[in-house]
Amino acid sequence: MSDDRQSIEYYAQAFERCLAGPARDKTRSRAELVAHLYDAAEAGELAEAMQRLGSPRSAAALFTRARTAPLASIGQRLQAALIDLVPLIGVTIALIVRQVQDGSSIQVAFPPSLVYRPGEGILQTVGVPLALAWSILVLGILESRTGSTPGKRLLGLTVVTETGLRVPLRACVVRRLSLLAGPFAWLDWLPQLWGERRRLLDRLTKTKVIAQRGQREPQAIPGLPPAVL
Amino acid sequence: MPKPATDEREKAAGSAETARMATLDLLRRELARGTAELAVLSILSSGRRYGYELLRLLRGTGRGLLEISEGTLYPLLHRLEDAGHVIATWQAEGRARPRKYYAITPDGHRHVALLRAEWSGLVNAMQELLTTFGEGQP
User: Does this model's pTM top 0.80?
Assistant: First the structure.
């Protein structure tokens, strides 16, 4: 049984690493898998059960509820983006204010273009690249580690693969690269015009943004600290 | 030492048998997928069960004809839970490790009654069809 316990523990750890979303949901999915595997071990059928489940990743796709969760609406996604892109919005407003003060015609779009023009101030040469680095790299890393960004967390949204699993870092960064295209970044949202809930880069990276269902008050799992639930 | 021609015939028979078994497996999986909801709710109608217990009951039914695996069972249980047809509770009941028990709800009872009626109608219709146009009928 000690060998079985070790096998179950290794399998469950790898399983949990594939899951996305709040720690509470991951703990609950892991608890259900572990209970299933211990029952299989007690029946002397652990090897068969693991064989049927396949890799920890394929098992994670079976036990996660993210696979069938509803997709986030465009309203929810735009609200989350508004919160996440505060630095980029702030820089854009500052650029507009500076152009108004200079008395020149306003030539700023959102997202601001990264193209460098000689004679531009520190806002364009440092502010815009820093805000884009936040929007693409920092938020991409956060999404890969937690499945969420500050804005998505507030709206109860999670980024997952098409099978409901955690998205790798590269895909998390790539799905945000449209911000580099300046105002052309809005083309990424075109599918929303005909009712689709995924951006072009969501499709390219095989990801989706899901809305967590109305949370029922989760029942505590006996033997697990309530803090993680 | 067998003749080469006999080897060839045995190989051909072996691969035909493998293909037949693969087709049968596929057919059983398809049928299991279509009937899993009715099977799970029918078992739960008799009392609450935990996941592995359900799986063993399903796999043991009809000498293993119902080819249901974890890949069918757990997504189905979660779907039924979201639809309000079953409710899940964690209970330890003196054990070191808790188990997640699934029980049917009043809404689930109404749903399974509907599924049973549909299933009976389908079985009767198929029986009638097979009797009328069965093998050997002109």
Answer: no
